[in-house]
Design goal:
With 111 residues, the chain is of the alpha+beta class. The chain is 44% helix and 23% strand. It has one domain (5-103): RelE-like (YaeB-like fold, 2-Layer Sandwich), CATH 3.30.2310. The protein has helices at 10-27, 29-48, 56-61, 99-103; strands spanning 5-8, 66-70, 76-82, 86-94. A hairpin with a 5-residue loop joins strand 2 (66-70) and strand 3. Helix 1 (10-27) runs antiparallel to helix 2 (29-48). The protein is globular.
Amino acid sequence: MALRRVVLREGAQGDLEQATDRLLAEAGGDTALAFVNAVETAMRRIADRPGTGSPRWAHELDLPGLRSMRVRGHDWLIFYITHNDHIDVWRVLHGARDIAGAIAGPGEGEH
């Protein structure tokens, strides 16, 4: 089966930009680059095997199809929904964050 296209929603794009900017400022370029590389690797894993992500938050938030995958080596989670032709990445959030509040926030239910 061919890899599905990964589409980042506006929230996910913003999450990644903020995380990268913060890592650059607080930990330096090497750490920020390692984070970006780890996120890209996780996105490839999701595209290759979308069913391997955890459905935990789908149950907790009553959002059928929502899955999450941890970014290896980092305390970040990628939240996504699989469609026939693509993977819809909703958010990329730090594990210490209010996950339920961030995902249920304004605009996240739009398609």
